[in-house]
Amino acid sequence: MTLAKEQPSALNFECETGNYHTFCPISCVAWLYQKIEDSFFLVIGTKTCGYFLQNAMGVMIFAEPRYAMAELEEGDISAKLNDYEELKRLCLQIKRDRNPSVIVWIGTCTTEIIKMDLEGLGPRLEAEIGIPIVTARANGLDYAFTQGEDTVLAAMAHKCPTVAPKQEAEKKERNAVSSLLNFGRKKEEVTQEESEYKDHTPLVLFGSLPDPVVTNLTLELKKQGVKVSGWLPSKRFTELPVIEQGYYTAGVNPFLSRTATTLMRRRKTKLIGAPFPIGPDGTRAWIEKICSVLEIEPQGLEEREAKIWASLEDYIKLIRSKSVFFMGDNLLEISLARFLIRCGMSCHEIGIPYMDKRYQKAELDLLEKTCNEMGVAIPTIVEKPDNYNQIQRIYDLKPDLVITGMAHANPLEARGINTKWSVEFTFAQIHGFTNARDILELATRPLRRNNNLKELGWDKLVQEEANV
Amino acid sequence: MKLAYWMYAGPAHIGTLRIASSFKNVHAIMHAPLGDDYFNVMRSMLERERDFTPVTASIVDRNVLARGSQEKVIDNITRKDKEENPDLIVLTPTCTSSILQEDLENFVTRASMDTKGDVLLADVNHYRYNELQAADRTLHQTVKFYLDKAKKKDELPTDKTEIPSVNIIGISTLGFHNQHDCTELKRLMAELGIAVNEVIPDGASVHNLKNLPRAWFNLVPYRELGMMTAEYLKSEFDMPYVDITPMGVVETARCIRKIQQVINAQGAEVDYEKYINNQTLYVSQAAWFSRSIDCQNLTGKKAVVFGDNTHAVAMTKILAREMGIHVVLAGTYCKYDSDWFREQVSEYCDEVLISEDNAEIGDAIARHEPSAIFGTQMERHVGKRLDIPCGVIAAPIHIQNFPIGYKPFMGYEGTNQIADLVYNSFTLGMEDHLLEIFGGHDTKEVITKGISAGSDLSWDKEATGELGKIPGFVRGKVKRNTEKFARERGFAVITLEVMYAAKESVGA
To answer: What keywords would UniProt list here (chain B) (predicted)?
Structure first.
């Protein structure tokens, strides 16, 4: 690995046993099927996978989801049944019932162990049934939680068109009448719009975000004259962005390292390594880095950031000079810790499932810089943490806030330790200037709630345990 | 391969974990990949558990795949033994370890040489058993292990308790209203003058398992969990068991009479008839409710029941026998025990459905158009879509089915709770009539989507208006029946005449 040659960082990295709680990466289907509206996700696995999805996704399961299990039976495991024929039968049924524009196969632990050749079967079946098939191995053997999205987007990057297709001509044809009617006006509008952008190499952003956040970040860049040529993923599979050799790409989430690698190596794009647009500091750094690579002088960012910080003061008051502990389960930890430290918190430990020091380089640098500027100790980053050890450390350190999974949240609360359920950060809108408030809304909620209860003396709700 | 959106019973390891984490000071170690410890989230969330769920994973990752677990599982077992001093560690296989076919038994033998506590390998195969069967097996396995151990050490008490006593078998964590049922059963036993010897597995210590044979008999309230243990105790120690679920007035009485018979056979000389009579007529409100005019309005209303064996059987009997409700369909997802189900309900319902396929159940409900459904959370959502009320009577369940308030389904207080549930699920009688008389308070004109596929028939203005006057909760049914009638007779447009003709012919 070339990583060893990197200049020594003041950040301290540790690696524990990997005995920690997180969601299985197949959970990515829950937000990706909603994001990609014409998709269907088929998880090829066992009852265990199905049980997890059904329970973790709660109410969503009833909204006629565009995902299902291909539940493997004993005959599939012992290869008594032919994988290809079985998958064909199920995919034809899906085609008949839902007619999606793409079927995404999610490979699981079981398909890995029995070595089901999904990547090989996919193209054959795709040709036979006429629906694109994308194969992503989002399994618990290799990945944690949000990395599931990474595997899906990396697989989808291969399906992005190489050259701008005749799509435009097609569109025009379809709207022949309306374009005839509006011809003059439309054209004027378009040229005017184009002139708002600076001339730069096309930029494609990657990472699945809710549509309002996409609009928000796109407009934020537009203010600097940066045009976003496309997003991976887009609202529909049929609208995947064109990616040509030499395009610039930038990630919006810290867990997308495979996607970044694929875009660089396979699609020959240039990756803009920037901190992630989480918190006003991150958003500003993200925009600045993109602008600097595209050789654009950013305008008015400093004022914008200052204004956002001012508007957050009521929340920041609550957490300033308090301490936070990340147990680690969704890979957003570095960015969130950096933002909370900028808000005046101190952080002793950042647990994280997996740390790609190359992809997160700029974010790590910003974290270090932030710690120095705020005058707090630089946190230890614990990769593959051990939850049991972490809980002992939490008992010792008594942090004011622990960001953790649901398995530990209630037991910690019962022991008088404030917790915030980490999964909420994955589903809430946390990107860009405008959503910084939402992060603090989440992070301060336990403190605000417990402030309300403070007078009651109901801190510790478990009896002293016998064995200490 | 099977295309599945939803499953009723979970995978086998969930059953094992439910047993392990029900006991006090027992730790389960799953041989599983990252993310399979979702059980901890469910327990922490649904049960609002204050303590850490005693379940950890020995992670299966790429290295394990390549070289086998080697020392990893053993290290994890001995480590947990030191950290938490559990009495017992249960090594739990998952679907992944079922295929890897590592010699887990060997790991257990080797680890137990270095541990202070006992170590067991749960004997459950992912591809053969579901959650419920696995729970039943694991409980049996644990009980047998500790009784054998006591026998070997000659620590097995041989005497019975002085006064009649009972073991309550099958109360477990994440079970549907189990905690409340347990309290109610204990109260019932107290009123009958029966001492509770042991309750397993919930809250029990494995050290006390050797005391099980001291009880005069065993009570197995749930069909799904505890039967294997009860059978074992019967064959090994000649302990009789009562497996009548005390749910509903009639069944509770039957259960008590059976208990009376069992303990009198051992020389107790009790007569519970007066107690039963008093409870039935004056204490429980359920018998009086059946007689009251409220319940009259429910007579002949159609209901569908679906759930696990215990609850679906009990509800079917209560609805049909105690409330005069017409159960058009009773079903269970406990396929492996379907003969028992059929035998129990066949005289109380029109049709029996044994299925794990929720689409099949949804379709059956749509076909029958009952006035109310009693099912799992899944049926509740089917009901929402079809605009039919649903009372939840069995797992799978959501957090709202773990109420903080006292809501048993068993015993005499249980009969009250069930009466409320049933009554509140049907549209209230008077409201029903008033809506019919005054044409409903629904002023929406257009009828939007029904559950059935798009209609090819058109309704003229008068007929549409008339349809609008029909109360909302039966409108869909009237619409469908009228359209069915029109289609059969070849009418293209539905007029008022067609509507009335349809009503006369099919009673739409």
So the answer is: 4Fe-4S, ATP-binding, Chlorophyll biosynthesis, Iron, Iron-sulfur, Metal-binding, Nucleotide-binding, Oxidoreductase, Photosynthesis
